[in-house]
Design brief:
heterodimer, A: alpha/beta, Rossmann fold, 9-stranded mixed β-sheet, about 35% helix, B: about 375 residues, alpha/beta, 2 domains, 10-stranded mixed β-sheet
Chain lengths: ~1050, ~375
């Protein structure tokens, strides 16, 4: 029954997107907020991440995009006086925050209750020692382990248990700082790091069970003690690879009912003993050769796995958890998918689900690709099919990594011995190396011995290889084609193997009636009728998808696929808002997307959801079925934009800006024509194809130059080159992937970077605001600190910007959104980039200006005009707030990644600082990004020659705040001369003690290290930056960021002014 | 080899033959369990039925003989979307294909099992023929006539063991209760016996035609009526014997068919469900406590609550999805009967606690 005492609830979000904490918590939080408000509960939301949907005023009653600190949470509670906090829906960050508030007695003092799961339960699950005791009490086995608080203890325990051992720091994200140690030396290194990263300075030393099967259960429990299992999942990768980096299959495939029920019973016993009221995730290691198992971990909250389980089964875990927190029992909550049954049942699947991680090694080429207990994936994709082979093939092409099957990587350079080594070293390409090994005749058993991947999966991969072979040797008759499509071989792969064209395969299929049909995800294996149109494609089966006869116009909204660096949650925000706006305009909305972590793939976001890869063929399947009246591509990032040409070829009208105009912005020559016509300048540049052409271009432009491929996102592959050898290196890197478009070489201009998101209705242009980057040109806009409104450009420059924006929007015939990036060199304005689509900054600008940008753009796409919608064209009045978007990085999780900033984007998320005062906004932004300084008052400064003059005033200000400054020779001399009291330290290549010892001394707050441009120079200081970042030091690689940081520190204060976004 | 599933309404599914190349007519039912296919195939309650598994990948972990629920296979035919040719599990000793052949049971793979399931869900359980012959024209007409006329006969007689047999309690002194349970085998799943033995109870298993007098004469501490196949009303003789057991003071616990027969013995009626409950995810509410258990189920008939005399029995358990009866408590008697399967196998063990309650009943 509904607990009527709960009237006002504080929901805490998970903060910036980092590796291990991505969009899944926005999905869960948004679903929970909706579930709470349905019951008439007032919702207050706290989350520092402005790109989320949960921080919309449509989702919560009061929205605070403020730093996730105890002080902020306390002042929100004092101001808003909620009666309850729902702690289990905001990931680890939200949970930790609620726990800290509870432990300090603050909640009790202010009469605030934790609803859903209690503080005691959270401690029992999260505190390693209490967890172990609880498990012992109910005779649930955990791997032999002990919690240690020091390196010495850790080494002792490790010696007792015996190597290899697993080290897990308590209360960290995505297993940050953990790992497997094979020996004492490795153990010491991991312990040092882990103890530092753990909130409570504890690390669990544990028996290594790597190689066992990793099995997960998502379970739910209500206040009456009813317990159910929502979903079981089996990791293809054995224990030892973080589940976030594993290929995960639902339901379990290789467990007999005896094993399945043994673990299910265990999971239910655990959730009962922990007294959880809501959802919970239990991870197991299961010995592949016996009934022995260990509980690895319990998460007493929604998680990445619960998002996956929700999408895999159709069971909305977060929604049900929120209802339980309000007092309902499972048998009182309707199953929204069937509309007939209740939430108290266990979903039964009649399909196979495969999740694959999206790893960031395309961004961090030099990083260590090895997969371990430290999660490295930024996002994931999910695919559904009636067979494992099909689901795997669909998942692979959903990743958007230029890979369409198992033949995509070239191993001709690896000999058999090398291949064996590659297989044993689990990395991001393990599926492909396993395939290659089988092609060379290695047996499934042998591969299993090397990888510990269950033979069932290996043999399934082998089925795919058999099909490859048949497709390349047999005639393409109906049977072969049917079987190939059943396994989800894309037409382009079939075409390639058959030596015909993709279109020929498609035509043949149509002739033979081998087309994708759609099936419903219904939670119950067809036992009951389902009401929710959530579909996946399958071949050789009946079609269940009956196009509706609502008479409404149908619009296809293309999602943005997996979260990756450069294309994050912002694009899901845009897709979802656009969907809602189309619904309001009377359209029937159809979403295609493949990311299980998102709101766009929630069952009730669009009228119809197709959980499918975003490739030409998969989109065509939906188009052939639905015959939409139009498609909108401008909200789904580059993923959707890339599909516009195909959609046009299929006869689907692109709503809003036309594909040829989108293309004009990307095609260098056509764009230059437009710039000529409109009289707008851009840095000089050329298009090239070869290394020699590039060098010729660079020399004629004069170094430094920017080198980049066209049609990419997040500046991928973009570099500043200062010499011929740089150009050669970069071009080679770019050409590793087959380029369909020319490479661009541009003159690099140093100046202030500015950015505008505008809406154009074909006649008028609405500009919500101008953003200015703190860092000067050369750093990707996504990695720069962005300030709204722009404050340092002249009125003249501003007018030029606005004028250029209007001219460009009209010249490109924009209908909807356009994003433009400029350089201001004094009053001279150059254009850097134009994207006739929604951008990363749209959610944040929408929120701080109170202008519903996506909704307006969508209405304009539907034919309305800016004036008709009640807005005056031109630049809108400042909202009266400074809003600063601070990039957040996940460098500590990607071993070997270079963290210095440049034209290629590297950040994974963002935090917002908002205030009427610029300095306070800046301080909030740093706090929101997790920069909580000062701590030890020690810092290192080592800057390139060009920055030496600029660093002096900055160093003086750090000194004034109380910092001890360490420097290497060059910087030391400059600072000393300028009267800064600093301490000299030796360079890393010099004898110890040197700068590295300083970093590893664990008492540093900040390292300011600005590397020189150019490939070889970037490598200088790499070791320092890596070590610093891995030990939790804030590393700054641009002088402008350093200045912003010191301004923030100078303006830090205890009581910050809260801003309720819902009131803007 | 091509194989066909012909339903009595003329719907035909084409697939590949698996198992024995034999033609059978049977009642077609679907089961939604994602694991436990061997337990399903060896459950004697499936006498006279052909089973369609809704989970598309069947056979993944091979055959682990110790998981068998009886001495053999009882189903008429096995219907799957994809049969795994590559079982992988440390206990696996064989494959479904071999097992089907060994027991001379036909099967079909590669059909659209979801379409079949939806058909049965919408139209109700119906008869069908599994054959490798391509029927056409008059032959098909004639076959459809035969299919329509099929009725499961003597199901319990086929399913029950023929002799009295003692299954002693597990050799664990801590558990030993020294109590003895008489089990009336109407097609019992082995896990009923295992569950009782594991709780320290000796079990004497009686064939379905056992006389109540003989059972009572052996002085059991409790009587267990097992699950079993077919239409409960086909068992008039057994119902009479059960009435005699009802009239004693011996505690009785009954599962599935046993539950239905006790209801019939005490004057209530049963009816056929549209498509039955077969799977491991059915929520059942304990009416007294309000607790819901996820249960294992396999039944096509149910007790009609409207016909239960409230002076004889009250509803003890109820299905949360469709409100059908899931158990009765007999007034003034030490008798509890349930429609679902607390012995699980396959399926959740959440209601295993009912065996403990049975012990409590025996201990008074």
């Amino acid at each position: 029954m509904l607990n009527k005492d709960i009237k006002k609830v504080l929901v805490i979000g998970s903060g910036p997107i980092v590796i291990g904490q991505a969009a899944e918590f926005d999905y869960a939080g948004t679903q929970a907020c909706k579930a709470l408000r349905e019951e008439g509960v007032e919702v207050i939301l706290l989350n520092s991440n402005p790109a989320t949907i949960m921080t919309d005023k449509d989702i919560a009653d009061h929205v605070y995009i403020e730093p996730l600190t105890i002080e902020v949470a306390e002042s929100i509670i004092e101001k808003e006086k909620p009666d309850s906090i729902l702690p289990t829906l905001g990931g680890q960050a939200g949970l930790n925050m609620a726990m800290a508030l509870s432990e300090s007695g603050f909640l009790e003092k202010h009469n605030v209750k934790l609803i859903g799961t209690s503080a005691e339960t959270i401690s029992k699950a999260e505190d390693r020692l209490m967890f172990k005791e609880t498990m012992d009490k109910i005779h649930e086995p955990v791997a032999a382990s002990k919690v240690v608080k020091s390196i010495e203890d850790g080494l002792k325990v490790a010696a007792e248990i015996g190597y290899p051992i697993v080290l897990r720091p308590a209360y960290t994200l995505g297993g940050a700082g953990g790992g497997i140690a094979e020996n004492e030396e490795q153990c010491r290194t991991i312990l040092e790091n882990g103890l530092r990263l753990s909130r409570v300075h504890e690390v669990l030393v544990e028996r290594c069970i790597s190689g066992w099967k990793e099995i997960e259960y998502e379970v739910m429990r209500d206040g009456a003690g009813n317990v159910i299992t929502v979903c079981s999942m089996e990791n293809l990768d054995p224990v030892g690879v973080h589940t976030g980096d594993s290929v995960v299959v639902a339901p379990t495939q290789t467990l007999s009912d005896k094993e399945y029920q043994m673990l299910r019973t265990s999971a239910l016993n655990i959730i009962t003993e922990l007294d959880i009221k809501g959802g919970c995730n239990v991870q197991y290691a299961l010995d592949p050769e016996s009934f022995e198992y260990c509980v690895i971990e319990v998460n007493p909250r929604v998680s990445r796995s619960s998002a996956l389980a929700s999408k895999a089964t159709g069971y909305p875990i977060a929604r049900v958890a929120a209802k339980i927190a309000l007092g309902y029992n499972l048998d009182e909550i309707k199953n929204e998918i069937t509309g007939k049954t209740y939430a108290c049942f266990e979903p039964m699947l009649d399909y196979c689900v495969v999740k694959m991680p999206r790893l960031p090694f395309d961004k961090f080429i030099s990083a260590d690709h090895h997969l371990s207990t430290q999660m490295k994936a930024t996002g994931e994709v999910m695919a559904i099919s009636s067979c494992f082979e099909g689901a795997l093939m669909k998942a692979i092409r959903s990743l958007e990594q230029h890979v369409h099957g198992l033949m995509s990587y070239d191993y001709s350079y690896v000999d058999d011995k090398g291949l064996r080594k590659l297989i044993s070293d689990t990395d991001d390409r393990r599926i492909w190396t396993v395939a290659e090994a089988m092609r060379r005749g290695m047996s499934a058993y042998e591969i299993h011995q090397l990888t510990k991947i269950d033979e069932w999966f290996i043999k399934k991969i082998s089925n795919l290889l058999d099909m490859e072979k048949r497709l390349s040797s047999e005639a393409l008759d109906e049977n072969l084609l049917r079987e190939a499509k059943h396994m989800e071989f894309p037409d382009r792969t079939i075409a390639k193997l058959q030596g015909i064209t993709e279109e020929e395969v498609y035509e043949l299929r149509k002739k033979l009636g081998i087309v994708a049909n759609f099936r419903i995800v219904d939670t119950c294996a067809a036992e009951f009728e389902a009401e929710t149109p959530y579909f996946y494609s399958d071949y050789n089966v009946d079609d269940e998808d009956i196009p509706s006869e609502s008479g409404k116009k149908k619009v296809l909204i293309l999602g943005s696929g997996p979260i990756r660096i450069g294309q994050g949650i912002e694009f899901d925000f845009c897709s979802v808002h656009s969907t809602w706006a189309f619904k309001k305009e009377g359209y029937e909305t159809i979403i295609i997307n493949n990311n299980p972590e998102t709101v766009s793939t929630d069952f009730d976001t669009a009228d119809k959801l197709y959980f499918e890869p975003l490739t030409k063929e998969d989109v065509r399947n939906v188009v052939d079925k639905e015959h939409p009246d139009g498609a909108v591509v401008q909200f789904g990032g580059q993923t959707a934009i890339k599909l516009s040409q195909f959609l046009t070829e299929m006869g689907v009208e692109i709503l809003g800006t036309k594909p040829e105009d989108v293309d004009a912005a990307e095609d260098r020559e056509r764009f230059d024509e437009i710039l000529n016509e409109t009289g707008i300048k851009r840095p000089e540049g050329c298009t090239v194809f070869t290394e020699d052409e590039a060098i010729e271009a660079a020399e004629s432009l004069g170094y430094p130059v920017l080198v980049r491929p066209s049609y990419v996102l997040g500046g991928q592959g973009m570099q500043i080159a200062i010499s011929d050898s740089d150009v050669r290196e970069y071009i080679r890197e770019i050409n590793k992937i087959e380029q369909e478009h020319p490479i661009l070489v541009d003159k690099y201009i140093k100046g202030i970077e500015l950015e505008i998101d505008a809406i154009c209705d074909g006649e008028d242009v609405l500009i919500p605001g101008i953003m200015e980057h703190i860092e000067r040109t050369g750093i990707h806009s996504g990695d720069s600190i962005s300030v709204y409104p722009a404050r340092s450009i002249s009125e003249n420059a501003k007018n030029t910007l606005l004028d250029y924006t209007k001219r460009l929007a009209k010249a490109l015939h924009v209908i909807g959104m356009i994003n433009i990036q400029f350089i201001a060199d004094g009053d001279d304005i150059y254009i850097i980039e134009v994207n006739p689509r929604s951008s990363r900054t749209v959610p944040y600008i929408s929120k701080v200006t109170g202008i519903p940008i996506v909704s307006l753009a969508t209405k304009i796409i539907c034919g309305h005009t800016i004036k008709e919608l009640g807005y005056m064209p031109g630049l809108q009045k400042d909202s009266g707030y400074y809003a600063i978007k601070m990039p957040v990085f996940s460098f500590e999780k990607i071993r070997g990644a270079d963290i210095s900033l440049g034209p290629e984007m590297k950040s994974t998320g963002e935090a917002l600082g908002i205030s009427k005062d610029f300095n306070e906004a800046l301080h909030k932004a740093f706090l929101g990004a997790g920069v909580k300084l000062p701590k030890y008052y020690n810092m290192v400064i080592t800057v390139k020659d060009e920055d030496k003059e600029d660093i002096i005033p900055i160093a003086k200000r750090f000194e004034a705040v109380g910092y001890n400054i360490y420097s290497t020779r060059g910087t030391y001399n400059v600072l000393k001369e300028a009267g800064v009291d600093c301490i000299r330290t030796r360079k890393v290549e010099q004898e110890s003690p040197n700068i590295l010892d300083l970093v590893l001394g664990h008492e540093l707050d900040i390292v300011i290290d600005t590397p020189r441009d150019g490939a070889s120079n970037r490598r200088d200081g790499f070791i320092i930056r890596r070590n610093a970042v891995e030990t939790g030091v804030n590393v700054i690689t641009a002088i402008d960021t350093a200045e912003a940081l010191i301004t923030s520190l100078e303006n830090r204060k205890k009581n910050i002014n809260l801003v309720d976004i819902a009131e803007i | 080899m091509n194989s066909y599933l012909i339903l009595e309404d003329g719907t035909i599914y084409e697939g590949t033959s698996i198992g024995a190349p034999k033609e059978v007519i049977s009642e077609i039912v679907f089961n939604t369990s994602m694991t436990g296919y061997l337990e399903v195939m060896t459950d004697p309650s499936y006498v006279g039925q052909a089973i369609c598994m809704t989970y598309p990948l069947i056979g993944n972990y091979g055959i682990c003989f110790e998981d068998m629920e009886s001495r053999g296979l009882w189903l008429d035919a096995f219907i799957v979307r994809e049969l795994s040719e590559i079982p992988s599990n440390w206990r696996s000793e064989n494959t479904i294909q071999n097992l089907l052949k060994q027991y001379a049971i036909p099967g079909i793979a590669g059909i659209d099992t979801r379409a079949l399931t939806k058909h049965l869900r919408d139209k109700g359980t119906m008869n069908g023929m599994l054959t490798n012959k391509h029927y056409e024209g008059d032959e098909l007409k004639e076959a459809l006539e035969r299919i329509k006329n099929y009725k499961i006969k003597d199901a319990v007689k086929i399913a029950t063991e023929k002799n009295v047999e003692l299954f002693p309690a597990n050799d664990d002194d801590n558990l030993k209760t020294h109590k003895k349970v008489a089990l009336l085998d109407l097609g019992a799943k082995r896990n009923i016996i295992r569950s009782l033995n594991n709780k320290g109870l000796d079990v004497v298993c009686y064939p379905s035609d056992a006389k109540a007098e003989d059972i009572i004469a052996d002085n059991p501490d409790g009587i267990m009526l097992s699950n079993g196949p077919g239409d409960p009303k086909d068992n008039e003789d057994i119902i009479k014997e059960i009435k005699k057991l009802y009239d004693t003071d011996i505690p009785i616990f009954a599962i599935c068919l046993g539950h239905q027969l006790m209801a019939l013995a005490t004057g209530a009626d049963t009816y056929k469900l549209k498509f039955g409950h077969r799977g491991g995810n059915h929520p059942v509410k304990d009416i007294e406590t309000g607790r819901v258990y996820i249960t294992s189920q396999n039944h096509g008939y149910a007790v009609d609550m409207n016909t239960v005399n409230p002076e004889i029995a009250v509803e003890a358990y109820k299905n949360v999805n469709d409100g059908t009866n899931e158990g009765l408590r007999y007034i003034g008697k030490n008798i509890v009967t349930v429609q679902f399967h607390p012995e699980a196998s396959p399926g959740p063990k959440d209601s295993e606690i009912l065996f403990d309650k049975f012990i409590e009943m025996m201990e008074g």
